[in-house]
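New to this. Please check this protein:
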Amino acid sequence: MRRRASILECGDGDAKAAMAQAPSRHSKTCRLSDALVHGGTSPKQNLANCHERKGREGKRMINNGSWLSSPRVVPVLDPDFRPAVLANRAFTETARAAKGAVPVRLAIEQADGSIFSHPAEILPANHSQAAANFIYLERLIKFLLWSRGGFRVYFAGPETLGQQLRQYYRETPAGKFDGDIMGNRIYERAFEIVIPRDIPPSRANTAPLGRHLNGCRIGFDLGGSDRKVAAVIDGRCVFSEEIVWNPVPQKDPQWHFDQINESLRSAAQHLPRVDAIGGSSAGVIVNNRVKVASLFRGVPLELFNSRVKDLFLEMKRAWGNIPFEIANDGEVAALAGSMSIGGNGVLGIALGTSMAGGYVNCEGNITTWLNELAFAPIDYNPDAPVDEWSGDAGCGVQYFSQQCVGRLLKPAGIEIDPQLPLPEKLKHVQQLMLSNDERAQKIYQTIGTYLGYAIAHYADFYQFDHVLILGRVTSGPGGDLILNGAKEVLRAEFPELFRRVAFHIPDEKEKRHGQAVAAASLPALPGKPIIA
């Protein structure tokens, strides 16, 4: 199954319903996972009494427990940051040190039959901190769901914990959001937690991604605030253009079709013919069909299902059914980085309107993984900032995007009109950076610290030797501070990663049209060789 997902929020009636149930960004999170730590006789009772009992015993356990401690490098504007990577490793060490540690096996299944397994160890039921088992497992499954993707979770472990996981995905807003997006929206199957004695063996599909440079091609890249297009002849860019647009509030799919097609026609004027078209777009894309995409968030659900899902197939027909391929923007960003540096094993992280992730494995292929790291948790602080779409706390989007910049304005002491849109807030911070404003510097230093711990966390789930960092948040001198901050964390806490992983930021030429050129390389031309 050709797929690719990753960036940003999801988008229409279902997501808005989840958003309506979500707590505000400044509220304290009250997930079922919190409630189970706070005591009580049942998950339902715990959930109902969460706020009342959130102080004292439960809070003490979660913040003072040996598995959730302060990082060695503390984000200058966020002293309460509790990195997921440190928490997971400390929890595992605690479990292994306990007598009678309980082995658990997890697996995630996709609609094409791909299965991704992950082992874990948890505390025995009689351990003083056994209530933390649920939090650890729920956060781990959350990460696996949004990095791998799947509609079915196999849980081979204690029956009681399996039932609690089922209840979490049935009854809590954040759990229902994940289950609905994974099941109904992406894989079009009912989401379920299966509790077998054992789990099926792992199996996965991979496929080469792009790198086809022969012929006359058009590549385009659709972002939340601009769209780019490039005309490419045998791998050489002969024309590129960037156009500011605002697709998110648009309700009519025809508007999106016309805007994208206008860019394609503009590029076509610079080619003797058009052999193929490749695109890069925010969202979950499976077989050129749009499953979830923030760009179409304003489109009503009925219109999304009837028109948007097959919008790119419709566009292919409009261009005479020439080879036409669409992939997620995070994946294409990783491809562009791989092509630029001449290496594989690339994890791409885009800090833009939201957050995008993409991955090219060590063989130079893509997998069927989602890499939707915007929703993957990296902070286990129970009062971490809440994502307005999923209603969950501590997820990547609040740490690696314009949303993060906006969130850090107040702790940095920068006063600005709160009604300004996020791109304007980012521009203001970037202008302050040009005058060496220490407040602005602290924002980028904080993001850099976040990034260092997140990369170490990702390295527990991905194999990579290169990290590609891009997006508007990284533009200007702030990008250097982000990179330096990430390297400082790796040097201090993860020296093996510091020695192994190379960081890359695209140069201005690559930023202008590198991703559109990479997108142009997606379709293969039958009977024609690839130009190296």
Confidence is low (pLDDT under 50) at residues 1-64. The longest helix spans residues 438-459. Residues 102 and 305 are 44 Å apart (CA to CA).
